[in-house]
Design brief:
The protein has 267 residues and is mainly α. Helix content is 78%, strand content 0%. α1 runs antiparallel to α8.
Length: 267
């Protein structure tokens, strides 16, 4: 639960900190709040019907659904990267008017937060349901572990939001943009992995490398790298290609934008 909660906390904390640094927290924070609230409700509702959903998407169907959720989450992360880059330096002026632009931006924030939080809730429900049915843990132990993980995730989100106020604006934007890009790349690669498993995509080559003995994914370092960078101890060539291709395309786009940016006028 800590691992799943960290991913949602990172994105929500970054979004809140970005809005705060732009002076737009009051205008758009409600979209973030609604996204989180409705995602929690949707996760609880999914948990209530987990047995039926698991039966409907058993076998290959569950892999397809997991890949689709990851793909949508990566797409919304990419959207917020594009939006943050385009909004730098002109947010204050836009807040004075252009209600339609503000409404569209709010919808984008809501979608990003909802999909991110619900994805983690969806995966958490499947994981906890699987542990419960397999008899791997008692109810009291599962509840205690889940609550502890969620509290730690909320603490991280608060630290990101509070600490973001003291980070220089340019460095803050650059760092958060890079972090979101790596998160999206990892999600796309994971989606490709699910679809390779059901033969929706070709593997190209199985197990390009195997670092599970050096940095296991379930270890402390492996879990952190998985969350932040999309680390995979034994990926297929398709997953590596998707990960590298996405980073390459986004890198070229960022570089092209930097080249096209006009030089500031001399005073």
């Amino acid at each position: 639960m800590l691992r799943e909660g960290v991913e949602a906390a990172l994105v929500v904390g970054i979004v809140l900190a970005v809005l705060n640094r732009m002076g737009a927290g009051g205008a758009y924070a409600r979209h973030v709040a609604w996204g989180v609230a409705l995602a929690v409700v949707a996760s609880v509702a999914f948990a209530a019907v987990a047995d039926r959903v698991a039966d409907l998407f058993s076998g290959a169907g569950q892999e397809v659904l997991n890949g689709a959720v990851l793909f949508v989450a990566a797409a919304t992360l990419t959207y917020v990267v594009v939006w943050v880059r385009a909004a730098r330096g002109r947010m204050a002026a836009e807040l004075d008017g252009r209600a339609r632009v503000a409404a569209a931006r709010g919808l984008g924030l809501f979608t990003l937060v909802f999909v991110t939080v619900f994805r983690e809730g969806f995966e958490s429900v499947l994981f906890l349901w699987g542990v419960s049915t397999a008899g791997g843990a008692g109810a009291a132990d599962m509840v205690a572990g889940a609550v502890l993980g969620l509290v730690a995730s909320l603490a991280l989100a608060w630290a990101l939001f509070a600490g973001g106020r003291r980070v220089p604006l340019k460095g803050f934007f650059d760092a958060t943009m890079v972090l979101l890009v790596f998160l999206a790349a990892g999600m796309l690669a994971n989606a490709a992995g699910f679809w390779v498993a059901v033969d929706w995509l070709p593997a190209l080559a199985h197990q390009v490398w195997d670092t599970s003995r050096i940095v296991p994914e379930r270890g402390a370092l492996g879990s952190a790298l998985t969350v932040l960078l999309g680390y995979n101890a034994n990926p297929t060539l398709m997953e590596v290609s998707v990960y590298g291709g996405y980073l390459g395309l986004i890198g070229l786009w960022l570089l092209a934008g930097r080249v096209r940016r006009p030089a500031p006028a001399r005073s």
